[in-house]
Amino acid sequence: MSHLTEDDSTIERKYVKEKKIGEGTYAVVYQGKEAATGRKVAIKKIKLGQSQAGVNGIELSAIREVKSLQELQHPNIIELIDIFSHKTNLNLVLEYLDSDLEMIIKDKNIVFMSSDIKSWMLMTLRGLDHCHKNWILHRDMKPNNLLVGKDGQLKLADFGLARDFGDPMAKNMSTQVVTRWYRAPELLFGAKQYGYAVDMWSVGCIFAELMLRVPYLPGETDIEQLDLMFRALGTPTEEDWPGFNELTQMKFQKYPKTPLKALFTAAGNDTLDLLEKMLNYDPNKRLTTREALNHPYFRNKPRPTPPGKLPKQEKSNHLNEPVSPSSSSASPY
Amino acid sequence: MSVRSSTTAKSTPKKLSSNGINRQGETPSNDNADEVCPICKNNRYLSPDMKLLVSECYHKMCESCIDRLFANGAGPCPICGQIVRKVNFAIATFEDLLVEKEIKIRKRIAHHFNKRQEDFPSLKEYNDYLEEVEKIAWNLINGISLEETEAKIKAYQQENHDLIAANAQRMLQEEKLAKLVEEQELKEKQSEFEKYQKTLEEERKMKATLKDEFIEELRSSKQTADHSASTSLDIASSGVGMWLGLDREHLDDSMKDYNPAATEYADVDGYTLREKYYDPFTEVLGLSKTGGFNIKFVHERALQAAFSGICDV
Description:
CATH class of the largest domain in chain A: Mainly Alpha
Shape of chain A: globular
Oligomer: heterodimer
Pfam families (chain B): MAT1, zf-C3HC4_5
Helix content of chain B: 40-55%
GO molecular function (chain B): cyclin-dependent protein serine/threonine kinase activator activity; zinc ion binding
Number of strands of chain B: 5
Strand content of chain B: under 5%
Subcellular location (chain B): Nucleus
Helix content of chain A: 25-40%
Largest sheet of chain B: 2 strands, antiparallel
Keywords (chain B): Coiled coil, Metal-binding, Nucleus, Zinc, Zinc-finger
Structural class of chain A: alpha+beta
Protein name (chain B): RNA polymerase II transcription factor B subunit 3
Order of helices and strands of chain A: HEEEHEEEHEHEEEEHHHHHHH
């Protein structure tokens, strides 16, 4: 990244802001382009000094985002092109993508083939695998944060909640992460130390959503979220999830386990096996990204659709890099 | 006007009990072939277009008789002799003319006697009032002491002029409100209907795209129609959202030899992660495994950092 050697105003002059495309709690996103090449970019202007919770006036999510994205360079992760400050604002120059998976799922004119779903899953897992290999948790995996470019490439975005994992000193990791519908059971039960498995649960929910075309577990409250989860997957027992009984004092209605086949009638056995292993209650048994990528599902036919051939929206006017307000309630760790 | 005369009208086809209510409860159908105009004796069998109208004195006669009798303005009713006009003949809403008459009278009474319960100090007085109104209506309907009753109405009207007007006003307002509510409901229903139409339209479009895609597939596919047909069967049986058990594989072979687990970067290697390490430091922290934290993360991360030469712990 060139900003290490150039000063702020030099970098700033390289980019032209064109129009505002979105605003979140801590940032405004503009569409713009690189003056020299005409390459479309998204400029995320972070408002400084807005929150007292920020470190030295900089919002924590901004630090998380910069920290993570500087480390991660991968075809399935959004690229942080440049950073510059202007007056009291911090500006992140990000790759511009004009659609996201949520819009594609919601667009009822698009018909999904199983090979399309496999392709999106493959790209999601590859991006996430790169995060996890670098010991970074995304912690806000949802279709809305999986951007899709014109070339069909899917990229993980919005690292505002990302942090590292596998640090023994981090004894009190926030449980208020991940948008509720995609939140893993251990987070809902308030586990203070967790790992890669929280992201994998979200991916499982996204996988199910790709097949159902509606959110899989759309709970209105945390309690309802658990109830929905137990209804769908059965209430976990100490056997399913060692330590479960110590995790909560709450008593839950006992729902029996229903085979996934009942809801996902068109899915093949390999598909269901992968989904079931992603939605394993015990986070220690939940698949890692690597295990998921090596699952027979990705080797069996049909082959994933090449990104360029994936169905696209006819017309899109997407706001790049959505600043998700629904999950920005993270507290500092 | 006389009630009795109406029972003599031949067009009233059934016998009426003395209280004016048709006990048999049967209504002859409009296309009754026996229907006869009491004046010219023309019947429906001979002229199916015959239209029987009702006079203000509640006597039926056919249109051509009315035209003939009252061509020169008002004249006496050929049945009861009351002076009637052509314009006041109307199509009967009810087959039974007594019902027709009673409704008309009750409408008129309700117009004047529009007091409500809240206008009375007690329920008993309200009931007495209702009783009185009923008596007046009864007298009018059955033609009992007509003049006396009319006088009563007039006296009441003068006495309660203000209240009647006020109540009428109130009623009007309530009607307006009811109408507004009704309109609102209608609007809602309409928008619901439009929504439904939209979903239908979307579904139709979806099906069309499906079909197009299927045809496109048939066209570009090297496989036999049988195979395609069987995959299209999957569509029908899927039932889950709009996800299809189809694949686009034959469209492109570029994904034929791919490794799903291929990564962009080589993994850090040169070490073997052991099941257990001597690690008193982490042990004392008392980390819980239930939430998905694994002590192996710590060890592997340390090893990776060491082996990639950027140990920052």
